[in-house]
Amino acid sequence: MSTPGAEPTQEGSLLLDDQLCFALYAASRAVTARYRPLLDELGLTYPQYLVMLVLWEQDQISVRDLGNALQLESSTLSPLLKRLEANGLLRRERRAEDERSVALRLTDAGARLKEQADTVPLAIGDAMALTPEQDATAKQLLRLLTTNVTR
């Protein structure tokens, strides 16, 4: 949405509508809000859902590798893991080969939750209403943006 009479987007513009950061922020808030009722039914928050996605893909993973996958610091990840463990969805185990390393594993309840979560990506995809090509392009551009900004 452009402001009537506003100049076309220019480098260095201070118009809100010209800020990519605001478009990303608004999109992120809207998408996360759309997830909320779906995840409430699963008893998960959005960050907990992201943890579960990684564990459903790879049942045993170190806390360090999970943090890398989610681009989260240990201090942010620890409370998420404690809550998921308290809810009986995962367990933390010291690795025999390196007791400093903690492995995460799904419990049976955590594995069963995946079946209930199968409808979430479809519902979100429907809400986004992107063609497969638009979806692929959006992901590609966002990954490129992340790579460029974190260099």
UniProtKB/TrEMBL annotation:
Residues 17-147 form the HTH marR-type domain. SUPFAM superfamilies: Winged helix' DNA-binding domain. The keyword Transcription applies. One of its GO terms (biological process) is response to stress. Its main location: cytoplasm. Gene3D superfamilies: Winged helix-like DNA-binding domain superfamily/Winged helix DNA-binding domain. GO terms for molecular function: DNA binding; DNA-binding transcription factor activity. The keyword Transcription applies. Signal peptide: none annotated. It is found in: Cytoplasm. Keywords: Cytoplasm, DNA-binding, Transcription, Transcription regulation. This is MarR family transcriptional regulator. The lineage of its organism: Bacteria, Bacillati, Actinomycetota, Actinomycetes, Kitasatosporales.
